[in-house]
User: Fold these one by one.
Assistant:
Number 1:
Amino acid sequence: MTNSLKSKRSFLMGAVMLMAVSSVFAGKRKSVFVIVDGIPADVIERVHTPAIDEISNQGGYSRAFMGGKEGGYSQTPTISAVCYNSLLTSTWVNKHNVWGNGIEAPNYNYWTIFRIAKNQKRDVSTAIFSTWEDNRTKLVGEGKPDAGAIKLDYAYDGMELDDKNYPKEKDNLQILKIDEAVADKAAQSIRTEAPDLTWVYLQYTDDAGHHFGNGEKFDGYVKDADNQVSRIWEAVKEREQKSGEEWMVVVVTDHGRKDDGYSHGGHSDRERTVWYATNQKPNAHFNNQYNSILDVMPSICRYMNFEIPQPLKSEIEGVSFIGKTDLVGVEAAKANGNINLTWKAYNPKAKATVYMSTTNNYKTGGADQWIKVGTVKAGAENFTVDTSKYPSDFYKFSVVTPNTQNNCWYVD
Ligand SMILES: [Zn+2]
């Protein structure tokens, strides 16, 4: 063997070994979603927010809606904890049952993304960094048997209850200090522990809205929030460079505000309009009227390759804004004594199978009887269900395609 051949071969072997080493890390996927509370879309679009802009420039930015179907069975208050739980469970309040910030009786049968994560065959490490402890203890319901008795691997929260280190300040500014600590801690954890699924919750922008309404002060606190997001984003980029991991980042607000910028909870356009930014290239579903806060959870689940139990899939109402999504917006309405389903198709050729149930046992932890009622090309965007054999004042429908499952109720 000549020297040149030998060196060529050892170079090749080295390259193969390098590839083998890097493949251990390559493709290891992680995700972090950040809720910045109560920032109207028109504000985030107007104010200079370089970190959120950089994330959007890598993937995308879109407006979306919160609040369920206005005037319909799924109408959902644009109140903070209600919004977070809609995001976590990808269902509206008619299912998850969190009607206000008191979080009196969440229906844990509609799993949060953390319970889904902990239900995977593989180990999935989870983390919450939050200016509000209830996110972990009540919404995710850590340790509660009804909520799956799951345990977060990393948590940093509850400082709002620590009036020794964070005594109440004018304009509630101690909350801004807590956000700063939460953002720093989250960035540090991403750098060192790199949890597979992280939720960061930053609150002060909502306080600022309630205190000051629209104006320069509010805009300034939005910039502070962007600066907090920048620390998390820098940690993610560092992690991707050093470890070869791939990260999905989503920054999202939970609700808008009334026109004067002070309050929220109702169904004006500005209150119902939310937005999100992601570093992942979105699909055709992004940036349209069907985009809602419910789409964050299925998008992260798809990115992370989380398996979702079939009965839960039949309850989730959002669809993924990354990868292939065949249709969205399934709705049911009475028509000539039958029920007519409509939707918006992204993949017209996809075969859609329509299922129906007249029971809602899932709500109380039971199983539903799903009946296959027909198939149609997704592009028809329409299917009439002959309900004469199944008289009921309540129906659940599920439209299943190769890449998507989208569900709705019909309530008389
Ligand atoms: Zn809020």
Number 2:
Amino acid sequence: MRSSSGDFLLSPELSSLRADVRAFVDERVIPAEDEVLAAFGRGDEAPLRALQDAARAVDLFTPHLPTDLGGRGLGVMGMCALFREMGRSLLGPRAFNCDAPDQGNMDLLLKTASPAVRERWLAPLCRAEITSAFCMTEPAPGAGADPSNLRTTATRDGDDWVIDGHKWFSTGGSLASFLIVMARTSDDPREGASLVVVDRHADGVELLRDVPVMAPDVLQHREGEFRFTGVRVGADAVLGGIGQGFRLAQERLIPARLTHCMRWLGLAERALGMCREYLAERISFGKPLAEHQLIQAMVARNATDIHAGNLMTLHCAWELERSDARTARPFSSMTKNHVAQLLCRVLDDAIQMHGAKGYSDDLPFARWYRTARAARIADGPDEVHTMVVARDFLRGKVDLLA
Ligand SMILES: Cc1cc2nc3c(=O)[nH]c(=O)nc-3n(C[C@H](O)[C@H](O)[C@H](O)COP(=O)(O)OP(=O)(O)OC[C@H]3O[C@@H](n4cnc5c(N)ncnc54)[C@H](O)[C@@H]3O)c2cc1C
């Protein structure tokens, strides 16, 4: 029998749900990858919609949502179980309507949005009728790795707020219906920022371009650059109250970072599994590649890294369920760094182990690698997470044997 850590710490119900998601990804999502992605690139969303309808029909759509919104009310551990399976395909998260940034945005709106925003934006987002984006990062000298450089402003005018600024790397921004924009509302270092929901097509919202990047387009994942000039929103567009932006962004980003790790683990596991087949078949210097020790060393390192990443992710999910985002923060930084780096290494090694074919677009590794490389930068670069881990550890705030 296959030794499995996939069901580790999961209830029988979650294990069974996980098996259903895995089967759906194997049987429906992976075979449809090329067709759905190519059609989407031509502006034809019908194959994607068909896949989403199929997920809905077997009750696997938006499982992270509360039951009254059509989900299964999964906690973070539950998301771990399912998102790893969905992440085995770049298409998987969107097929189940659990993709970034929408899933993190749904979570944030559920906790903080006014009734008007919930009705206008959250409800259709949960039904996958629209998509969304999160606009925090700005070109230098604005907010990047250090959010305190925030330059975009929201200024009060009567009951409204008026937004001016410049954002980029707003993933999915160009196709989104609404944007969650971080803007400065005062000079207070802790409470000087607010999150505001903006209609993507409102007066004053200008899409400058999709920034050309290393990765190929994968569905809506394009990096929008926006200028906001005198964009007017009502008071009910502010999430969680004025001055809550930095706190809410942290609360959104810590679990969202972990859900990235879950998806990345799925992709790494699939890539390593694909290597196993080639290594068994390909004969070099008189024996299968799988019998060469240098290859075995690569395989063992990657398998160990994925397993460790899986355990780190589960531990951080458990921590998030039982305590608060602040306690989980150093663990989420450790996990994000570990999993982002292992993903890049596993894909790089998969290319290496497949030789020229691995480098070609006959196999998906090169494409996946170009997408995966952003993992070490987006949601905080490696160095910033390293800084957080060291700072919290040196302050005595990390129980390493938790
Ligand atoms: C594909 C992709 C998607 C993204 N999606 C979004 C999105 O949807 N919404 C959004 O708001 N942003 C998004 N981002 C932006 C991302 O969050 C930022 O790129 C990231 O926070 C780093 O900011 P920066 O690019 O401005 O780098 P900078 O702040 O200019 O930093 C440059 C480099 O300096 C180094 N560095 C920075 N600080 C330190 C330090 N303390 N110690 C040592 N070295 C340091 C790091 O190596 C870092 O990569 C995305 C980025 C990418 C690549």
